[in-house]
Amino acid sequence: MVLNNIETLLEKYNNAETSVQEEAQLKAYFNGDHVAPEFEHYKPMFQYFSKSKQEQYTKDVPLNTKKTKLYQWISVAAVAVLMLGLVVPSFMGPTEEEKQEALMVYNQTMEAFSLISLGMNEGKTQLSSLALVGENINEGAQQASKLGEFSTMTNKILKNN
Predict the structure, then answer these.
(1) CB-CB neighbours of 16 under 10 Å
(2) Domain range spanning residue 48?
(3) Could you tell me the mean pLDDT of each successive run of 10 residues in the chain, 161 residues long?
(4) CA-CA distances (angstroms) from residue 37 to 34, 79, 151?
(5) What is the value of pTM for the model shown?
(6) How many domains does the chain have?
(7) Among candidates 5, 21, 4, 22, which has minimal Cα distance to 13?
């Protein structure tokens, strides 16, 4: 009876279906002195599990708390570059003459753009009148197609008489 129970427990253990209590029964059986000869090859495995559970790591693990100075210097350099980026333009910015010249160039560019805009608007009005002519041509073509239908109908009427 006990051997049948151990055999079913081993089968469940190999299929990973055992509970904690059933595994405890298997460990107790294989750690004992009376193990059936057909299950003798399982005994070293369960004894290893029992022994390895009692093992402890006793060596000290050194922790590396040493920080590298490279990251600190990179952060200092980044702050320095940022500060230079903010401070240098205010000292080395454009002079008053350069500002006046830039304003004059801007005004000339705006005048040129307004002249181009006037020319574009004139061309647009001419295109709108051209579109009106195109619509009138399409309307005339539709009227001409009606004349073709009228002539075919008159020919049918005259042929029938």
Answers:
(1) 6
(2) 2-53
(3) 78 87 86 83 82 79 74 87 80 78 93 88 76 80 79 78 52
(4) 9, 76, 116
(5) 0.35
(6) 2
(7) 22
